[in-house]
Amino acid sequence: MNLTLRVWRQSGPSDDGRMVTYKVEDVSPDMSFLEMLDVLNERLILEGDDPIAFDHDCREGICGMCGMVINGVAHGEQRATTTCQLHMRHFEDGATITIEPWRAAPFPVVKDLVVDRSAFDRIIQAGGFVSVPAGSAPDAHSVPVRKEDADAAFDAATCIGCGACVAACPNGSASLFTAAKITHLSLLPQGQPERLSRAKAMVDQMDVEGFGGCTNTGECTAVCPKGIPLETIARMNSDYLKANAK
Amino acid sequence: MSRYTEGPEIRDAKAPAGPIEERWEKRKFSAKLVNPANKRKLTVIVVGTGLAGGSAAATLGELGYNVKSFCYQDTPRRAHSIAAQGGINAAKNYRGDGDSIYRLFYDTVKGGDFRARESNVYRLAQVSVNIIDQAVAQGVPFAREYGGLLDTRSFGGAQVSRTFYARGQTGQQLLLGAYQALERQIAAGTVTMHTRHEMLDVIVADGRARGIIVRDMVTGEIERHLADAVVLATGGYGNVFFLSTNAKGCNTTAIWRAHERGAYFANPCYTQIHPTCIPVSGEYQSKLTLMSESLRNDGRVWVPLRKNDTRAPGDIPDDERDYYLERIYPAFGNLVPRDIASRAAKNVCDEGRGVGPGGLGVYLDFRDAINRLGRDAVEKKYGNLFEMYERITGENPYDVPMRIYPAVHYTMGGLWVDYDLQSTIPGLFVIGEANFSDHGANRLGASALMQGLADGYFVLPTTIGDYLAAGPFGDVDDEAIAEAEIKVRNKIDRLLSVNGTRTPDSFHRELGKLMWDYCGMERTEESLRKALERIPELREEFWQNVKVTGTSEELNQVLERAGRVADFFDLAELMCLDALVRTESCGGHFRAESQDADGEALRDDENFAHVSAWEFSPSGEPVLHKETLEYEYVKMTQRSYK
What we know:
The complex is a heterodimer.
Chain A: E1 3-9, E2 18-24, H1 33-46, E3 69-70, E4 73-74, E5 96-100, E6 109-111, E7 114-115, H2 118-127, H3 147-157, H4 164-168, H5 175-186, H6 195-208, H7 219-223, H8 231-245
Parallel strand pairs in A: 1-5
Antiparallel strand pairs in A: 1-2, 3-4, 3-5, 6-7
Helix pairs in contact in A: 2-6, 3-5, 5-6, 5-8, 6-8
Chain B: E1 5-6, H1 20-30, H2 36-39, E2 43-47, H3 51-63, E3 66-70, E4 88-89, H4 101-111, H5 118-138, E5 152-153, E6 163-164, H6 170-188, E7 191-194, E8 197-205, E9 208-216, E10 222-226, E11 229-232, H7 253-260, E12 265-266, E13 271-277, E14 300-304, E15 321-322, H8 324-328, H9 338-350, E16 362-365, H10 367-373, H11 375-393, E17 402-411, E18 414-415, E19 428-430, H12 448-468, H13 478-498, H14 504-519, H15 525-545, H16 557-581, H17 605-608, E20 610-615, E21 623-628
Parallel strand pairs in B: 1-21, 2-3, 2-11, 3-7, 11-19
Antiparallel strand pairs in B: 4-6, 5-6, 8-9, 9-10, 12-18, 12-20, 13-17, 14-15, 14-16, 16-17, 20-21
Helix pairs in contact in B: 1-5, 3-6, 3-12, 4-5, 5-12, 10-11, 14-15, 14-16, 15-16
């Protein structure tokens, strides 16, 4: 396959940035999207150019480090797929592909396609945990958990923290990310004691970081590589309201 | 580097004496305690935020130490522990199927092919039960039964059902548990987090590890961080092979540079080749993806009976298929341990019966499982793995058997540590995959998560106290810091100044191919000597001809890679030397010269029942120190899974 890439290049936070066009040839349909960029980068290095910086690590769709807006869609058009798991067989020969970083004020660009997502860590710091120091836990079977609850908690817990939800949201909201963690912990008996304080602290932190509010457009869940359901946001709002009513 | 010298044996790994079940209890009691008020005056650096590092940093923070945590990723939650699929072993015996701490200990010592320390492994089995309790209390959503209790499964060659799991994402869920505990401590102010920082050297002053030199990967600034003790939890070195199931960023730099500072490197040749990975599809391949070996519980492994059989798998009738694992190992069948399954796959491919491009693959077939259990049941168990396979290969495993091939997955070798997890540099502790201690020559499935969390939550936080009780250790000698910093800067400047014609990745790929061919699944004296000849030549070319673009004062991913590749060259050489010296076969180390009449690995207990701990020497001639392994409880036998 031969492709034309339009890639966002920005040398650092103070650079304005611009789209730059590259031609790539002999792309194999079995390549992953990132492998296609690897090949381009190898060429750029040999030509003495600065290769395109992008975040990636596991390349198995689980670490959440990669993420690009591809043809206007976070992680590309294939549903429930991270950028690293997107393969070139889903593109047409001769196509032009536009590649941009996540764009949201709380995710400032570091370089090219690399953004700073540390705001997510601070949301977790606000309350995304169960306070249980090592060594203090009772026997694992002392508290049975209904299978349905455990399964639903698991579904929410699969969030990989990639930030695609924020990139896709017209409001730049981090609601899906925050709600996934709140839902995961609030469905389990272990998460009950801190349930309301957790919801309040995490939502408040989301606001402090400058993420927008949720207006139920559902773009987030559409691009989420793990298919975190929109209902998690309803649960978050419910817990948040209860916490504020107290 | 086929020359080395032999130094004095390591006589004491500091495990307490007495009955094995009392040793850890004894050590916990004999370890000095640090007064709670003094803990915050003691600083501990933890490098790496996977299961071992994340849990250690969180726990040390909970205990009240002043902790500094470092990772190269943008957040601690990305560490590669997250990719572990299958599960975590624990001797809970919730099934009443005859499991016990002793049995887990026994299985692990035997599975490690009698090259692990009994005392360490027993402690691991003891602590395993606490890990599950801790994880459940944190809200880790393990799979459960309808009665609300935890589900378990049998995994990777175990005959009891002791593996706890969270669908195919056990590593992710356990890591998020540790990550959340870590973030809680960051919020509490006990842990200071440094993301996008890469450790480039250890500061050793007055014979103690007192800090690290790191590079801020965003600004390029070289920083010094000082402490009373340093913990390395930086994972394994499987990426020396370029293609592996490790994350792209996994590297050996932290442990290698600690090795150069005096930490012994133990059993570097012990590498685990995982039998069920998606085969290589082309030259551009950047990494290999593992398919959880839980798939072997229901999938059947086969190749065509005939050589060069190009028929579609569905067109090959049963009597023309060779279910070779079931044939050769009737007792364990498709569930034989990883090293055995991998070598069997290599053997049938070497015979010309492999499938897929290049004949480097075998089938993992779910046809019978789907017929027996129904498609829905198979989907419930393995749905996400099947999806993952289809996404990568474009083939649907419900209709066509998966193609799998072994790939480098885990490294049992690592920095040598004593029973307290302390390296040969006082104050430098090493935990998780980065150390060598618990898996011997072969790690059993679902034991990596167990070891990482055992080290981080339970073992290190106790043993490091004994060391820190003598602290704080006062000011750090300025010269030692300056020397380490200059060494780091010089290496970076040197990489940037070559300006040659080959990229770091092209060297890395070539080195990896060489290691796979000569120091991979099967090793011979000839292949290893060839590698030892070729590696220095390639390294020389690297330093003459590598091209690193950009500068050191910016985010520069080419520079990052070049630095790691440089260290992989040195490590590769030591791996080959270690493999050459160990003329026996054991676990993941198969020397073709040492096999029995059936082609199975043949240990040489008389000459090799020891740990090979290598001391770095600037002269290029490393010094070998042996630590004799004694088996008081599990009698050494030839492993048999037939």
